[in-house]
């Protein structure tokens, strides 16, 4: 009798090896190799290929581009304008959307509210594998939600769930969460790489073939990434991250992948006792607690997708008591902080090597675009010299290593939002100013270098 072949599969990324390895060579995870019979692995791959090939034969031959009829995708609009904005204008029929976030951040609450809103005009199926009927009912009563078109199913067997979807024919399905779903005839336990991968593929086929929008909730790892194989994010149409601090009432819904809209789109929500409430003007909310005359505080008009958000940048420079200066940043990339501190020391004469530096973007949001450089640099100078900036000033611009202020994108949208919120003066790159032809109800100060900006903001 021939010896049965054994394969090992990494639970973190799905890498396969003929022998057990302590460290996965693909993702670097330790002690994640799971034993799996090789004949089953081969059978799974064969079945998947056969399904794809047979589907391609049914669809027919290739077409020229001008022979294809373009149809605008149908969207279902919710009462959450912030949610629709992140998705690109509404829920697309037949789309598969993955939403991830830290435990307790409000993923289930958000999807329950969205599902209840859509149930006013569509048939919705909410599948939970982590909570009971009574738990969902209790949350719905707390949120004061109820609708006759809302159906609830508490099960983890994907075969039974697919049968129920076929019976009800809903317009939208919510799966909470994908790590709890299992396929009985498939190897591995619920939450393993093989189960998550096959469950997502099954849901994708259901969504595409029946034109049903499916939302799946994904757990996240300690690093903040969605748990399971990385291919999970490649399989779905849209990937959303629900972010925020547990002790902060604001929540940020961010799109990092979207086949039907803009990526890096941002939606802001406020967590209240009665659920999540959308924030229509987050800029005003983020700036309402600014203290006039405070040092180290500046405002930047940053872009998040298609939206312009005014956020407060705070910095604190204080002499270090240790041999090495400490650097801490919240909401800003640490490497950007180190770069700007070096530029300010080289070109503006600030001796920051013996200063502890602390940075923060208020409101719990994260900014990573180049246009925030000038606001960070001005906050550094303000805190270092203990001189406040004017409360109605705004700063927009990217800073190069030689101290030049470089051009930024979509300057007109940034200026309109700045003027709308009552700011009197805005500092922008000189190259952007030369291209402006419109007249704005705000004083525009063009600057070419960081030295020029410092002289105009802190005249001596």
Automatic annotation (TrEMBL):
A motif (RadA KNRFG motif) lies at residues 257-261. It holds the Pfam family AAA_25. ATP binds at residues 101-108. Keywords: ATP-binding, DNA damage, DNA repair, DNA-binding, Hydrolase, Metal-binding, Nucleotide-binding, Stress response, Zinc, Zinc-finger. Residues 356-460 are annotated as: Lon-protease-like. InterPro entries: AAA+_ATPase (IPR003593), DNA_repair_RadA (IPR004504), Lon_proteolytic (IPR008269), P-loop_NTPase (IPR027417), RecA_ATP-bd (IPR020588), Ribosomal_Su5_D2-typ_SF (IPR020568), Ribsml_uS5_D2-typ_fold_subgr (IPR014721), Rubredoxin_2 (IPR041166). Gene3D superfamilies: 3.30.230.10, P-loop containing nucleotide triphosphate hydrolases. Residues 72-220 form the RecA family profile domain. It comes from the Bacteria. The middle region has homology to RecA with ATPase motifs including the RadA KNRFG motif, while the C-terminus is homologous to Lon protease. Plays a role in repairing double-strand DNA breaks, probably involving stabilizing or processing branched DNA or blocked replication forks. DNA-dependent ATPase involved in processing of recombination intermediates, plays a role in repairing DNA breaks. Stimulates the branch migration of RecA-mediated strand transfer reactions, allowing the 3' invading strand to extend heteroduplex DNA faster. Binds ssDNA in the presence of ADP but not other nucleotides, has ATPase activity that is stimulated by ssDNA and various branched DNA structures, but inhibited by SSB. Does not have RecA's homology-searching function. Belongs to the RecA family. RadA subfamily. This is DNA repair protein RadA. It comes from Ruoffia tabacinasalis. The gene is radA.
